[in-house]
Write the structure tokens for this entry.
Amino acid sequence: MRSRRSTAPFVVVHCAALPDSLVEAELFGHSRGAFTGAVAAREGLVRSAERGPLFLDEVDSLSLGAQAKLLRFLETGEFRAVGADRAERSDAWVVA
């Protein structure tokens, strides 16, 4: 395989299965203490797909707010984990 992304993880997200209250935390991750039950920081699926493909199945089922945050990531490559005070960058290749 000649693609520089061929050895990176292939992350699949079934967007319709994500509850609205957890979409942002699942996609972008969260800091420790960001919400009740967040006892440790967790990287999101965008970070898990770093330098590889992130396949967003049924992306149209996301709420408009979640779609807006996803759009910002698609335009800039930047995202902010829930509860984080700074933005991060990702080089994930998004397929929707």
